[in-house]
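[job 4471] stage=fold_predict status=RUNNING
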Amino acid sequence: MKRILIGLMVFMLFIQCNKKEEIPVEKPVSTEKPAESKKFEMYKMSEMAALMEQMYVDNERLKARILNGDTIGKFPDHFMNIHKAVMTDESENDAFFKLQAKHFISVQKLIYEDPKNAKEHFNDGVKACITCHEGKCHGPIPRIKKLYID
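[job 4471] inference complete, writing C-alpha cells
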C-alpha cells in the first residue's frame, strides 16, 4: 500500500512539474487610428524646389564633362525659369533672391561662353548658389558644396 501511495505521489509530482501555466497575453492598446482612416498625402515640391533639383543634376553632369575634358555643350534654357518659378513661400522671392538669381545666371552662362576657364566659372556658380542659400535656406549647402571642382 505504501508503494502505491508513494508511486501515486511521484506520478502526481511528475504531472505537476510538466504542467505549464498559461499566462494570458494582453495585446498592446494602440492609440493610433486604423490605417484606413489616415489620409496619405504625397509631398509635392514647389516649382522652384523642382527647378533647383534639376539644376543640381545638370551641374553634376557638367562637372563630369569639365573633369573629363569633354565639350561643355550649351547653356540649359530651363535655368532661366529661376526668375518665374513658384516658391514654397512666395515671400522668399524678394530683392535679395532676385539679385542672387541674376548673379547665378550670369556666372553660369560664363561656363558656356568661356569654356577655357570652365572650372573657375563652374566654381563661381557653385559659390553663387551657396551665397544665396546662406541668406535663405541653409539646408542644401552641404550638398551644394560637393559640386566644387578641386
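[job 4471] summary: The chain has a mean pLDDT of 86.
[job 4471] exit 0
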